[in-house]
Design goal:
alpha+beta
């Protein structure tokens, strides 16, 4: 008979492997418990605040931040953002609740990739501050900074890129000099990239939306696609291009919007509106068919624009006027 014996070195190797496996399981368990604990929620809340306050001259507060690692969800409640230099009781931006859903395998991809972004009760309060500028202008400009006379020749520095498979905004409000405008977006996908212009107080950005539906004061515009590239500086936004397509509206716009305190148009526009497809009671009560096309140069103040161009209508039928 032959006596078979196990190698003498096998038991220590197995012991080391089981020990490492046990330590790994313990580490994972402890990490999981910490991620799901209130201590991690407090760390996450502090991290969000510090990141924004380090990047911009703002003061940030929020009541709660919570991560559910298993469900791939982050929730933030009662977010408020103010200018740090001219802080007031009224936040420039406030959000009642925000929730993002994400997939763990997409975390390592470049930029921020979200499955869903949900924002409830966002509010933008636009106020003039002691330096004569609007609070939303001061949010992005540090006190005492001055822009370069000419743009830098180098590429714009990367700041942020966000993609979301579905975006929903509920019960939004913009308050500008006691004029309030309500807004919502029902659903849709979004891709957004913004880069800081070196040595200047400004940003270059690109925004793309698809399958969106906007609602502004009960005026709803379904959008199949919208793409824009813009440059945002301290008191002006330039549209290199803005293209919008939908069943009710098609538009192409190039130009700028100047002076945020007293907005001034300087735009080349080509807009076509299918009146019967506008989802608003006021229009559809009196118009049930036809289209209007507006082409030309639009300038002047926001409330008193002047069009140098032409307006064409086709097949418009008006009914039931008072």
């Amino acid at each position: 008979e032959l006596n078979q014996t196990k190698p003498q070195g096998s038991r220590p190797l197995r012991f080391i492997a089981l020990t490492l496996l046990g330590m790994l399981a313990l580490l994972v368990s402890v990490s999981w418990l910490w991620l799901e604990s209130s201590a991690f929620d407090r760390w996450l809340r502090t991290r969000i605040i510090n990141t924004l306050e380090d990047r911009f001259p703002v003061s940030v507060s929020l009541d709660r931040a919570h991560l559910e690692i298993l469900g791939g969800t982050v929730e933030v409640e009662n977010f408020r953002l103010r200018n740090r230099t001219y802080s007031t009781d009224t936040p420039a931006i406030e959000i009642g609740k925000a929730r993002v859903n994400f997939s763990l395998f997409r975390i390592l991809q470049e930029g921020l990739h979200l499955d869903e972004l949900y924002i409830s009760q966002p509010r933008v309060n636009i106020l003039e501050e002691p330096n004569g500028k609007l609070n939303i202008q001061n949010i992005f400009v540090r006190a005492g900074s001055t822009p370069a006379k000419e743009p830098s020749e180098g590429p714009a520095a990367f700041l942020w890129a966000v993609q979301a498979g579905r975006v929903e905004v509920r019960n939004g409000m913009v308050d500008f000099e006691n004029e309030r405008v309500a807004f919502d977006s029902l659903e849709g996908a979004m891709a957004f990239t913004v880069r800081r212009i070196p040595d200047r107080r400004g940003f270059v950005g690109e925004l793309s939306l698809s399958a969106f539906s906007f609602s502004i004061d009960q005026f709803t515009i379904p959008v199949s696609m919208m793409q824009t590239r813009f440059t945002l500086t301290e008191n002006q936004i330039d549209f290199d291009r803005l293209e919008l397509k939908g069943p009710a509206v098609e538009a192409r716009v190039v130009g700028s919007l100047e002076d945020f305190k007293a907005p001034n148009y300087d735009l080349d526009v080509d807009i076509r509106v299918n009146l019967a497809d506008l989802e608003t009671i006021d229009v559809r009560t009196h118009v049930d068919q036809g289209s209007v096309q507006i082409t030309g140069h639009l300038d002047g103040l926001l409330r008193e624009p002047t069009l140098e161009g032409e307006i064409r209508s086709q097949g418009v039928r008006v009914k039931g006027l008072p």
